[in-house]
Design a protein that fits this description.
Layout: H1 10-20, H2 26-32, H3 36-47, H4 51-64
Helix pairs in contact: 2-3, 3-4
Length: 68
Amino acid sequence: MNPDDNDVPWEQVKEAVKERWGDLSDDDITEVDGDAQRMCGVLQEKYGLTRAQAEQEVDNFWARHNLS
């Protein structure tokens, strides 16, 4: 995960985020705004993941959607 990579086409992947993590609200997704570090924090909070687990989830999602 590249925490400095903020060039994510976020508007294009919001629906995929909603599908993958259905417990995230629109406000959560807006807060993330394509930032991998924020996404990890939100996943930790909403799903009770460890930091390492959240980073792995985000890495996998970013890779699957060519966001890295």
